[in-house]
Amino acid sequence: MHFKYNLVLFVGLARCVERQIPLAGSDQVHIPPLGFGTWNIDRSNASEVVSLAIQAGYRHIDCAVVYGNQKEVGRGIADGLKKAGIERYELWVTSKLWNDHHQPDQVAIGLEETLSELDLGYVDLYLMHWPVASTPNGNVINYVDTWHAMGDISRHKARNIGISNFSPDQVKRLLHESKIKPAVHQFELHPYLQQVEWVKWHKEHDIKVTAYSPLAGTNPTYGSHESNEKDPPWLLENLTILQIAEKRGCTAAQVALAWGIGRGTSVIPKSSRVEHIIEDFDTLKCELQEEDFRTIAALGRHYVKRYNNPSQGWGVNLFDGLEGLYV
Question: What is the mean pLDDT of each run of 10 residues along the chain (327 residues)?
């Protein structure tokens, strides 16, 4: 698939770029609130869509070695930087350590492999993808020694380190057993999985939050959009979201993303379609009102749905103490 870039699509996007004011905590972690995710973007067009996203104004790219497309993403980053006329330091790049590199002596190797695939000298954020280690005897919860090894990584190669998909007890154990606090915690968040108290806890402890799957069940990994009687309706067809969208002159996707940004989290939607890439970026023009946040909060009390939970397949318990485990 090849894109024919239409410059008309980018008219007015410069103003949106100016709204990419980074979310900064006391540790000065400046992460752009609207990112571009690369999970499930096919290798055949990953370079093109990543380049397009950067040209459209995205200044935050989220990737991972397990996605299997980092080489193509890296080529897209290089092309996007060149065509957008910006420098490397103007782009935030996140990647993640996979479960098969949890042994302490494998952590630095995992980062080097990622930097090689991306063809970058450093990443802005390196996350432990899961608190799970893959071993010859199966998967086990193992993350403390891995975290200590991540703390030894040169900050010239990983400017910040963080975690993903941790439970409350697991994060608290890290804080107790390490002098290095995660800069960012990435986990599933959307109007059907709001995790209000969990997000609040991170703010109180000055750990930035990035929301993956901010459009709920739209990722193809989660299956079809045909709900059974226990599932909430597809988020982008939810009447409450559509009513807010009509009232504010936004799309349903923009409402969901603006809600996430308005909570003080960064969000990382993904798409391979030009019109959706532009639509999602235009979220920065979508202004919600306080009443909209109250309405969506009520929606989250009515529907609770966690889409990403590999606990059963991996044979480990994940997300203990959090919402959406048994829905």
Answer: 44 49 55 96 96 98 98 98 98 98 98 98 98 96 98 97 98 96 98 98 98 87 62 94 98 98 97 95 97 98 95 96 78
Where would I find the beta strands (DSSP E) of 63-188? Answer: 92-97, 125-128, 132-135, 138-141, 161-164, 184-188
C-alpha to C-alpha distance for 220 and 224, rounded to whole angstroms:
7
Residue with tokens 């994060």: 171
Give the residue numbers annotated as catalytic, written as ranges: 67
| 8 Å CB contact between 127 and 95 | yes
**Residue 186 pairs with which residues in a beta bridge?**
164, 210
Output the CA–CA distances (angstroms, integers) from residue 62 to 33, 73, 118, 258, in the order listed: 12, 10, 12, 18
- HSE, CB side, 13 Å, CA atoms: give it for residue 188: 25
The burial class, CB within 10 Å (0-12 / 13-18 / 19+), for 157 is middle
Q: Token digits for 46?
A: 């990953």
Q: Of 273, 260, 212, which Cα lies nearest the Cα of 39? A: 212
Smallest CA-to-CA distance from 189 within 324, 316, 317, 19 is with: 324
pTM recorded for the entire structure: 0.91
| Cα–Cα distance list, 36 to 97, 107, 111, 157, 199 (Å) | 19, 25, 21, 21, 21
Nearest Cα residue to 29 out of 154, 183, 199: 183
